[in-house]
Amino acid sequence: MKDKTAKPNLTMEYEIKDIYKIIDDLIDTSIYQRIFFLGEISGGITSTDFWCIEEDDKISDFVTYEEGNEGTDDKLTADILEMNQFLTQKNMKNFNQIFIEYTFQKEEIVANVALDYFDWPEEGFAMYGVPDYYLSKALGEKYVTNFGMENVEKMTKYAESHEAETAFNYQFKNERKDEYEI
């Protein structure tokens, strides 16, 4: 009998699935068309955010540290730190941001993953503007809320003038609400 409490070998795929599982345990993901996750690491500080898109293209923003969600941010943070640990073990460059778009096709989940190597605050951009940058890239200007399009445009110009914005896109498929076994 397989020990379901034992964590399998550290892999990017496992952590990407685990992030989805944590979100799925927190909310009913079946009512959303897409879910976006952003994990950030800058100067020893980490943050995690996720948003869901409803059928009418309305965005729902979830705060992982609200009452009742205790420990969720810690679990999500652990996943992004473990991904960087995996990259270190493979002698690959660590990311500063990971942006995952989960989409649903019938009973399957597809995760498109982009890694970003910019330390935005170190480059002179506010960390609170980073979610707007990613949401505008994924969904368009109408979802920009924190610092406005002017900041997003500056970040976009900066990213376009420097190499290594996105390391790769990674996709996997998995049935919803399964045991998440690897």
Summarize the structure.
The chain has 182 residues and is an alpha+beta fold. The chain has 2 domains: 1-117, BH3703-like domains (Murine Class I Major Histocompatibility Complex, H2-DB, Chain A, domain 1, 2-Layer Sandwich), CATH 3.30.500.20; 120-162, no CATH class.
Describe the protein's architecture and organization:
The chain is an alpha+beta fold and about 180 residues long. It has two domains: about 1-115, Murine Class I Major Histocompatibility Complex, H2-DB, Chain A, domain 1, CATH 3.30.500.20; about 120-160, no CATH class. It is built from four helices and six strands; from the N terminus they run H-E-E-E-H-E-E-H-H-E. Strands 3-2-1-4-5-6 form a six-stranded antiparallel beta sheet, sandwiched between helices. Strand 1 and strand 2 form a beta hairpin. Helix 3 crosses helix 4. This is DUF600 family protein.
Number of strands: 6
CATH topology annotation of the largest domain: Murine Class I Major Histocompatibility Complex, H2-DB, Chain A, domain 1
| Class inferred from helices and paired strands | alpha+beta
What would the average pLDDT be, to the nearest integer? 79
CATH architecture of the largest domain: 2-Layer Sandwich
Question: How many separate structural domains?
Answer: 2
Number of helices: 4
- Main sheet, how many strands, which sense, barrel? 6 strands, antiparallel
Radius of gyration using CA atoms only: 16 Å
Succession of helices and strands: HEEEHEEHHE
The CATH class name of the largest domain reads Alpha Beta
Helix content: 25-40%
Gross geometry: globular
Widest beta sheet: strand line-up: 3-2-1-4-5-6
Distance between the termini: 15 Å
Segments where pLDDT lies below 50 for 5+ residues? 1-8, 178-182
Q: CATH superfamily assignment of the largest domain?
A: BH3703-like domains
